[in-house]
Design goal:
CATH superfamily of the largest domain: P-loop containing nucleotide triphosphate hydrolases
Distance between the termini: 99 Å
Strand content: 5-15%
Number of helices: 19
Shape: globular
CATH architecture of the largest domain: 3-Layer(aba) Sandwich
Strand order of the largest sheet: 3-4-2-5-6-1-7
CATH class of the largest domain: Alpha Beta
Number of strands: 14
C-alpha cells in the first residue's frame, strides 16, 4: 500500500490470505468504513472480547498457531520473514510466547486486534514483528523506497519509558530493514526530535502530549498512517490522556489497521475499543486477575512508621540483588529514598516529577547493576523492562488491586523464580482483601524480624461473599425493646 494511495485494493500479492482471497475481501472492516456504518452485533462482540479465555482465537483459521508448533523456525511458521525471524532470535526469543502465537498471523493479514495482556508477555514483539514485516514488504513492492517517508505507523504510549522501550524494540527487530523508527516525548527539547522527523520516519512512537505539540507546530502529519497502535490504554485513562487520544485519532485516515492493548478493560476502554476497532480479533493472555506462578508472594503486617526501617533491614539480605520498590505517591518515593540513604542504602526514585535525564540515568544504573534499589510509582514503572529483578517490594499497597499484579509481574519473568513482598499497615487492610479477592488466593503471612512491632496480624473474618460478618449491637437496647421506634402517640397507662 503506497502512502499516497491507501486504497487496500492495491495491496501486493505478498499480503494475500492463506485461503487465496485478497486481503481486501478478507477485511469487512475496510468495506464497512467505506460505507460509514457499524453493526450492533460487532459492537457486542468487541465489548465481550476481554472475557474470552486466554489462548489462540480462531485456531481453526490459523493452523500454524496451534500449540506445539515451537521449532527453530517457529516465527517463520507464523508468517514472519526470515530477516525478521533472525533478528528476533538474536534478541533472545527462541520460541513465540502465547500472545505472539495468537497475534502475528492475523496482524499480518491486516486484522484489527483487541489485546488484553499485561507486561512481560512478549506483547511488544507481538505487534512489532507483523508491522515491520508489512511495512518492509510494501515499501519494496510499491517502489517508494527512495521517496519521502511519511509516517506509516503511529504507536501511542502513556509514558516516556514505555515509548523508549517500544522504539528500542522496533530498532532491534528491524535493524536489517530499510525502515526508520523515531520516538518523541515530553520533558526534553523538541529540536532533536524535529530534526529526526524532517529526515523522514516510517514508524513513530509517541506520548500524547508531545505528539499534539508537534502536530500543532506543523511538524507531524498523520494522513498517511496505515497502522495505529494504542498501547497501555488503561493507563492512558488513569493519566487523563483519553481526550488527547481521541483528538489524535480524529486526524488518522479512516482506512487503517488498529491495535489496542490494555491490561484491564474498564467500561471507558471498552467504549474506546468500540469506537476505534472494526471486527477485531480478540486475544487475552495471562489475565490480569492472575499472578505468575514462579513468584513467591508474602505479606508483612507492620506499623506504618516502621516501614522504612523494615525495608532497610530486609535489604541487608545479599540475595536482594535487584529490588524494585513501589510507593503510591511521588513524594512518598522521594521520602523513602532519603530514609534509605540514611540507613546506608543507595537508591534512586523515578516518577513524573523527575526530569527525563534523571529518570533515564536511574534506570540505566539499575539495569547495569550499579544501583540495587529503584523506587517507583505505578505510572513511572510502566515501560520498565529490566531482566533479572530479584525482588519486588510493595512498600505501600496499591488502592487498585490490578496494580498489585502489574507490580509483582516485574519479577519472575521468563519462568524464573521471583519474590514479591508486601508491607501492610492497619490502614491498608481493605486494599489487601481486594488484592486477595482478585488473585483468588490468600497471600502468605511472613514473620517480622526481631524488634519490629506487628500491626493486627489477622484480617477480620469474612463469609463466602467476602462481606464482614454481622456485628453485635453495642450499648444498651432502647427501652421499647425493638429495632424500630413505635409509631403514633403513646397511650396513657391505666
Amino acid at each position: 500500500m503506497s502512502p499516497s494511495n491507501p486504497n487496500p485494493k492495491n495491496r501486493p500479492p505478498a499480503n494475500r490470505r492463506r485461503d487465496g482471497r485478497s486481503s481486501d475481501s478478507a477485511l469487512p472492516s475496510q468495506r464497512r468504513r467505506r460505507n460509514g456504518g457499524r453493526s450492533r452485533s460487532r459492537s457486542r462482540a468487541t465489548a465481550s472480547a476481554p472475557r474470552q479465555a486466554a489462548g489462540v482465537p480462531h485456531a481453526n483459521k490459523y493452523p500454524a498457531l496451534e500449540s506445539g508448533s515451537h521449532s527453530a523456525d517457529a516465527f517463520e511458521a507464523l508468517g514472519v520473514s526470515p530477516t525478521l525471524a533472525r533478528a528476533v532470535h538474536a534478541a533472545g526469543y527462541e520460541t513465540p510466547t502465547p500472545i505472539q502465537e495468537a497475534s502475528i498471523a492475523p496482524l499480518l493479514e491486516g486484522r484489527d486486534l483487541l489485546g488484553c495482556a499485561q507486561t512481560g508477555t512478549g506483547k511488544t514483539a507481538a505487534f512489532a514483528l507483523p508491522i515491520l514485516d508489512r511495512l518492509a514488504n510494501r515499501r519494496q513492492d510499491d517502489g517508494t523506497s527512495r521517496g519521502p517517508r511519511p509516517i506509516r505507523t503511529l504507536i501511542l504510549a502513556p509514558t516516556r519509558e514505555l515509548a523508549i522501550q517500544i522504539a528500542d524494540s522496533f530498532c532491534k527487530y528491524g535493524r536489517n530493514t530499510p525502515l526508520r523508527t523515531a520516538v518523541v516525548f515530553g520533558g526534553v527539547g523538541k529540536a532533536p526530535q524535529v530534526d529526526q522527523l524532517r529526515r523522514g520516519v516510517d514508524v513513530l512512537v509517541a506520548t500524547p502530549g508531545r505528539l499534539i505539540d508537534l502536530m500543532g507546530d506543523g511538524e507531524v502529519r498523520l494522513d498517511a498512517v496505515e497502522i495505529f497502535v494504542l498501547d497501555e490504554a488503561d493507563r492512558m485513562l488513569d493519566m487523563g490522556f483519553i481526550r488527547d487520544v481521541r483528538r489524535i485519532t480524529g486526524k488518522l485516515p479512516r482506512q487503517r489497521q488498529t491495535l489496542l492493548f490494555s491490561a484491564t478493560m474498564p467500561g471507558e476502554i471498552r467504549e474506546l475499543a468500540h469506537e476505534l476497532l472494526d471486527d477485531p480479533i480478540s486475544v487475552a493472555v495471562d489475565p490480569v486477575s492472575s499472578a505468575s506462578e514462579p513468584i513467591e508472594q508474602s505479606v508483612l503486617f507492620v506499623e506504618k512508621a516502621d516501614k522504612p526501617e523494615l525495608l532497610g533491614k530486609l535489604l541487608e539480605d545479599p540475595e536482594m540483588t535487584s529490588t524494585l520498590v513501589f510507593t503510591r505517591t511521588k513524594h512518598g518515593a522521594n521520602r523513602l529514598v532519603q530514609k534509605l540513604e540514611r540507613f546506608g542504602v543507595q537508591a534512586a526514585a523515578i516518577h513524573g516529577n523527575k526530569s527525563q535525564t534523571a529518570r533515564q540515568r536511574a534506570l540505566e544504573s539499575f539495569k547495569a547493576g550499579r544501583l540495587a534499589v529503584l523506587v517507583a510509582t505505578d505510572i513511572a514503572a510502566r515501560g520498565i523492562d529490566v531482566k533479572g529483578i530479584s525482588h519486588v517490594v510493595n512498600f505501600e499497597l496499591p488502592n487498585e488491586p490490578e496494580s498489585y499484579v502489574h507490580r509483582i509481574g516485574r519479577t519472575g519473568r521468563a519462568g524464573r523464580a521471583g519474590i514479591a513482598i508486601a508491607f501492610c499497615d492497619r490502614d491498608e487492610r481493605a486494599f489487601l482483601r481486594s488484592i486477595e479477592r482478585l488473585i483468588g488466593q490468600n497471600i502468605q503471612h511472613a514473620s517480622l524480624p526481631e524488634g519490629f512491632r506487628p500491626s493486627v496480624a489477622v484480617a477480620p473474618p469474612t463469609n463466602e461473599r467476602n462481606e464482614r460478618p454481622p456485628q453485635r449491637r453495642r450499648g444498651p437496647r432502647p427501652p421499647f425493646g425493638g429495632n424500630r421506634r413505635p409509631q403514633g402517640r403513646r397511650q396513657p397507662r391505666r
